Amino acid sequence: MNMSAGVVLADFFSGCGGSTRGFADAGIEPVLAIDWDSDAAATYRLNFPETTFLERDILSLSVDEVEEVLPPRGEAIRLFAGCAPCQPFSGHRHGPTALDKRSFLLLEFLRFVKASNPELIFVENVPGMQRLSTSRGPLAEFVDEVSKTHDVSVDIISSADYGIPQTRRRLVLVASRLGPIKLPLPTHGLETGEPHSTIRDWIGSLPPIEAGQEDSEISNHRAMMLSDLNLKRIRATPEGGDRRDWPRRLWPDCHQGGFDGHTDVYGRLRWDSPAPTLTTKCLSYSNGRFGHPSQDRALSAREAARLQTFPNSFRFTGSLTSQGKQIGNAVPVLLAEHFGRHLMDHVAEMRRIGSMSIQDQSGKVAADIEQAARSAA
Fold first, then answer.
1. Which is the catalytic residue, given 16, 83, 86, 282?
2. pTM of the predicted model, to two decimals?
3. Same-domain check for residues 338 and 228
4. CATH number, domain at 40?
5. pLDDT (tens digit, 9 = 90+) per residue, 18-74?
6. What kind and span of H or E run contains 360?
């Protein structure tokens, strides 16, 4: 293997490209992306025109098709990122059901890992991925197999601890066959002395718009329409508040009987705190705490993208509903960048250690020769 080579990325389940953008910002070259969603594919191609995109279901994808796109073995260090759809692992108390085939997409990713044996691996998903099903579960099988060839580190992290303005908890895994590797240390939070990023930090400077409006200068700064009833509801909701602040006449029918659950729906965000986890419904006022902190509307697509740490230059295609889905499904750009820099530092360290080993061996040979010369004299 050429340890002086650059690092290239194959982004499986790439979605619209959050992980690709972050890894590219860390100095990793994206050469391949794979996803079956046509809207996500259009957004990806718009933002990464030079990267090969395979709009395919991974179940029908062959190892040879992937190898044809990648640089020949030994000419580059390969990073395989596999951030499979998280919905099978979300909201299931006992883990994914056997009927949801998406639960085993991680093992489809494993098929490519075992065949290509990349030097580096990155996986991100919801914490529920670690829950075992009635069998051993896909994560346990994945870790067992990868551990045969790679050093593996896996844990549950809070995205807020890495500068993302969300309390987004995720299971992350990094693996390397170059040498021992650990997860990067947090950059924000009590242990670091650096305060968590807030909603104000990331969207406070965007110009105001109304529900149903779109800004003419900032791409994707568009918010969904609200019904007259929902306009009354959000106007009755203070910053950080929710439906519990409304007069009873505004309550949904399902709450009229005294149901107290789902307090985040119809909620407003709070300016000086991180947001909750953005979901695929992050542009909908009625599907979570996605109401703007002070304007009478839900988040715009650009605001949601900023809370996922996408740069303004990143453009989204498709309907507003589709844009919300793409944004909610994405790996936060800054999180991928942070892990990408950690992987690049790891490669640099392995190169340094390899070079040091050679130098040490050369020094030992020189000392042996000198000792032999003295003995001969």
1. 86
2. 0.88
3. no
4. 3.40.50.150
5. 999 999 999 999 999 999 999 999 999 999 999 999 999 999 999 999 999 999 988
6. helix 333-376
Q: 75 lies in which domain range?
A: 7-194+333-359
> Residue 53 forms beta bridges with which residues?
33
86 is catalytic: yes
Tokens of 99: 């009927």
Verify that 318 and 349 share a domain, yes or no. no
Distance CA 300, CA 292 (A): 9
Residue 325 neighbours by CB under 8 Å, 6+ apart: 39, 280
pLDDT tens-digit series, residues 199-246: 999 999 999 999 999 999 999 999 999 999 999 999 999 999 999 999
User: What are the structure tokens assigned to 91, written together?
Assistant: 């909201």
- CA-to-CA dists, residue 369 to 7, 129, 139, 339, 358, angstroms: 39, 57, 53, 45, 17
What is the rounded CA–CA span in Å between residue 256 and residue 140? 44
> What pLDDT is stored for residue 360 in this prediction?
41
CATH number of 260's domain: 3.90.120.10
Handedness of CA 363, 366, 368, 370 (dihedral sign): negative
* Cα dist from 4 to 116, 177, 339, 348, 351, whole Å: 20, 16, 20, 9, 8
300 touches 327 (CB < 8 A): no
Segment 76-134, tens digit of pLDDT: 999 999 988 744 434 444 444 444 455 589 999 999 999 999 999 999 998 865 554 44
